[in-house]
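Q: Could you fold this chain for me?
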Amino acid sequence: MAAARSLASCIFCKIIKGEIPSFKLVETELSYSFLDIGPLSKGHALVIPKDHTVKMHELPDEYLADAMPIAKKIAIAQGLENFNILQNNGRIAHQEVDHVHFHVIPKPSASDNEGLVIGWPAQKPSMDDLKAFHAELVGKLEGKL
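A: Sure. Below is the predicted structure, expressed as structure tokens.
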């Protein structure tokens, strides 16, 4: 019942259905894209899969395969040389809308006044820690653990 309520109240699902107006860019059977009304820079767009899924790892692969070429088309159409593709999962990772979506954010200049501004708090793990984590992760990816 909670899933049905979240689907019914989802702003992106309402945009897809045409219940909320948008500046539509590209629509396919699986995806819908439009200009962000609170852009970080001119041309900031969103690509949203039509499947109401909260996090990317829950989204069926065919939606991912459809969304990325749309993001690419939007970047090419704008002639972007510098841009970010952003996708957040979970509140502490800055996800604000509980529906998978991808931002195409132009970065027209080095200025922090336009486009995505991020920090990169790099860590310094030991080579032994990296080696151990690598072995663990490869084992999971290969289905050995």
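A (continued): The two ends are 35 Å apart (CA to CA).
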